[in-house]
Amino acid sequence: MEIGSIFEIDPATVREGGKTEALHLAQVEKYGKKQCCFTASGREAIELVLITLEREKPDISKRCLMPAYMCDCVFLPFVSHGWELCFYPVNRDLEPSGEEIGRLALAQEPGLIFIHPYYGSDTCAGLRGQLAALRGKGVFVMEDVTQSYYLEAAGKEADFVVGSLRKWYAVPDGGFVVSDLPLAQDRMESGEAYAKERLIPLVQKWEYLREKERRAEGALTAGWLPKKAAYLNRNRSLENELDSYRGVRRISNISADILRRTDEEEAGRRRTENYRMLYDQIRGMKRLWPTLLREEAQAPLYLPVYAKERDGLQRFLAQHGIYAPTLWPVGEENRDFRKGDEAYIFAHMLALPIDQRYGTEEMERIAQVLALYEKQPVIGIRADANESVATGHMMRCITIARQINKLGGQVLFITADEQAQDMLSQAGMEHVCLHTRWDHMEEELPVLREVLKLAGIRTLLVDSYQAPPAYFEGLRNFVKLVCIDDCFEHIFPVDALINYNAYHTRFPYEETYGGRTKLLLGTDYVPLREEFGEAVPGDDRRENKGFSVLLSSGGGDAQNAVWGVLQRAVQTEELKSVIFHAVVGAYHPQGDAIEAFAAHHENVKVYRPCKDMAGLMADCDAAVSAAGTMLFELSAMQVPTVFFQSADNQRYDREFFEAEERMLFAGDIVQDRNACIEAICEHLKRLVTDVSLRERMKDRLARVTDGRGAERIAGELMRL
User: Fold this and answer.
1) pTM of the full predicted structure?
2) What's the rounded mean pLDDT across residues 86-103?
3) CA atoms within 13 A on the CB side of 601
4) Rounded CA gap, 461 and 504, in Å?
5) How far, in Å, CA of 166 to CA of 575, rounded?
6) Closest Cα partner for 632 from 662, 611, 603?
7) 147-156, 188-197, 476-485, 649-658, range with the lowest pLDDT
8) Which of the chain's ends, N or C, has fewer CB atoms near its CB within 10 Å?
9) Residue 610's pLDDT band (boundaries 50, 70, 90)?
10) Is it true that the peptide bond before 508 is cis, omega within 30 degrees of 0?
11) Residue 193 has what pLDDT?
12) At CB < 8 A and 24+ separation, what contacts does 207-211 make?
C-alpha cells in the first residue's frame, strides 16, 4: 500500500476535448466575490493579483506584510514584480501576531497584507477585525486558502482570495483568484500545453499503482509500464518549470472538465473524516503530536504534526510506503526571519496525507506505522567533550545518532558536564547532564541507572577512555552495552564492540571475545558524517586558486599544533605562497591568538568552527591533521595528507596510513613538538612540488572507506 505523494489520474477519465463553458465551483463561489479567474496554479493566481493591482492601483505602496512561515514559491511573483516583503511572526499554534502586524503596518506603510489560514483552521481569526480596519485605511488584503480551501470563515476580510486547486484534486493544473476588483484577465495565456505535459506523470503513477496491484494478485502484466523514479523525476522537472514561469495561464480544459465532474462536497467530507480518525489515533503519542486542535479543522489539506525527529519520522514513513511532505523548505527571502517559533515549525512540522483518495483502511495503516515508530528503541549514548576530551568523540557519536534517527530509533545523549550541551543542541540531539566528574565514571553509576530507567533506554553506547570494565559490569543487568575500543587495553563485558581502525588486526579480538560479543571491526565501520559520503572530491574546484592546505588538530589541540605549523610555515620560503585553512575547535586554547595571527597574514584563513568540512576539504590540495577519525574523512575526500600523533591511542594509525604512502607521517608531537612541526613543513614542501606523489596518494586513499560506517553501526545498535 502506498499513501500520499502526487495524485494519480486514470487515463480513461480524461476527456481532452472538454467543455468550454464557464467553470463553477461551490467552494470558490462561497467567497461571494464579483470576479473569478481560474488559473494554472496558485502561484499564477498571486501573479494575476499583482498585475491587477499594478493596473487598478498604480500608486500602491509595493510593500507586503507576509507570514514568516510560508512556501518560498509564494515569494517569487512578489520579487519579480519588485515588491518588498516584510515578514511577521507566527507562533507554534500557527497564529500570526496581530500586535506585530499592527506595528509593522504603522512602520512600513504596506500596500498589501498577505494572510494564510493554515491546515483547515482559522488561524487568522484573531486578525480579522484588525484587517477590516486596515482595509478601511486603504491597505489591501490577500488571503491564500491553499491549505484551507473548505474553511467557511476564510475570505470575508480579503480583497483577493487565492488558492491552488491542483493540490486538492486529481488535475494536472488549477488555481483560482476571486475579487471584487476587475481582474486583468486579458493578460492570461493558454495553459493547455503545460497541462498535457503534467498529465503524463500523473497517468504514469496510476499505471504504476495498477501494476503493483496486479503483481500482488499474481496476475501477469503485458507491455511496458513506467517505473516510479521516471514519473517522479518528470513531475519534479515540471514543478520546477512551473515555479520559473513568469506569466499567468488559464486553467486547462482537461482540468476544468475533471473539476466539473468532481463531487466537492464528498471530497470535503472524506478529508474531514480522515483527519478526525487519524487525529484520534495518534493523540497522546510522545514522539509526535498534532499541531492544531481536532475540532477546529474543516477538511484540511493535510494533518500537520510536530515531531521530535521530523526528518527521521519522514524517512521511517517512506520506508513503509507513506509519503508525508515537509511544508515548507525555508526560502532565501525569509531565511533571516527563521527564528523562534518559525524555526521550530520549519524544523519539526510534517504533513500527514488525509486526502479523499483514502478512507478508514489507509488511516488505520498510517496510525499503525506511527505506533510502530513510537515504539522504536531508545538508544543512549554516553560521551563527553571538553578541554581534555577531543570533540571527535562527540562528533562521531552524533554521526551515529543521525543514522539511528534515520532508521526510526530514538537517541538520548548523556554527558557528565554541560560543556557539550551547545554542540548537541546545534545538532538537534536530545541530551541530559549527569553533573558528575567525566574522569571518574564509576561514581556516576547510581544516577546513570536512574536516567536509563526513566528514559526507557535499552541499549547504551559508551565512547570514553575513562570507562573501566567495572563501569560496564555495573550496567550490564540494566541495558545492552556497546563500547568503542581502539586500544585493546581492557576486556570489556559488552554486547558489541566497535574498532573501525585498520590496525584492529593487531589485537586478538576474535580469540578474546569469542561468540559472546558482536564485533564491528575494520574500516567498514568508520563513522563518517553523511557529507563525506555524498560529497565529490574537488579536483575541478581546486583549479587556479593557488595551493591550499587544510590544518586541523582536533577540537582541543593540546599541543597547539595548528599555530605551531602556521608560525613555521610563514617563515619557510617554499610555503610562503601556500594558502592555509586553519580549523579551530570550540575548545582550542589558542583560538583567539590564531585569529589574531591570521589577521596579519593574508594567506591564513581561520574557521571557528568549520560548518562545511567536506566542502573545505574538497577545496584543498593537501592537509595536515592529527591522527584520528579525520584521517578517514580526508581519505573519503582523497586529500593528500601529512599526519602526526598527538595521543597514545593514535600510535597504530601510523602503520596503516603510512603504508604505501597513503599519507605522510610526521612523528609524535607530544614527544618532540619542534621536530614534528619541522617534519610537517618538510612533507608539505614535498607535496607542493610533487604532483605525481599527490596523484598516487589520492588513488590509494580512494580505496580506504566507502563512507557508510555510521549506517552499519546504527543498524547493529537497532538490532541488539
Assistant:
1) 0.75
2) 94
3) 25
4) 19
5) 61
6) 662
7) 649-658
8) N
9) confident
10) no
11) 95
12) 208/8, 209/2, 209/8
Under 8 Å between Cβ of 198 and 173: yes
User: Lowest-pLDDT range, 212-216, 236-240, 506-510, 613-617?
Assistant: 212-216
What distances in angstroms separate CA 437 from CA 110, 215, 413, one per listed residue? 57, 60, 16
- CA gap 548, 620 in Å, rounded: 5
Q: CA-CA distance, 172 to 14, in Å (whole number)?
A: 11
What's the pLDDT at 1? Answer: 78
Q: DSSP characters for 641-698?
A: EEEEE-SGGGTTHHHHHHGGGSSEEEEETTT-HHHHHHHHHHHHHHHHH-HHHHHHHH
Residue recorded with cell 498604480: 58
- The share of the chain scoring above pLDDT 70, in percent, equals 95
The grid coordinates listed for 53 are 493591482
What residues contact 177, with CB distance under 8 A and at least 6 apart? 36, 37, 39, 45, 46, 48, 49, 160, 161, 162, 183
Nearest partner of 589 among 568, 626, 560, judged by Cα: 560
Can you tell me whether residue 16 is helix, strand or coil? coil
Which residue is it, cell 510593500?
63
Q: Which residues lie across from 433 on neighbouring strands?
A: 415
How far apart are the C-alpha atoms of 26 and 5, rounded to whole Å?
A: 26
Burial of 239 (0-12, 13-18, 19+ CB in 10 A): middle
Which residue shows C-alpha cell 565514571?
441
Cβ atoms of 622 and 694 closer than 8 Å:
yes
Find the angle CA(307)-CA(310)-CA(314) to the nearest 5 degrees. Answer: 120
Residue 597: name the closest of 622, 568, 617 by CA: 568
**Per-residue b/e over 681-706, b at no fewer than 16 CB within 10 Å?**
bebbbbbbeeeeebeebbebbeebbe
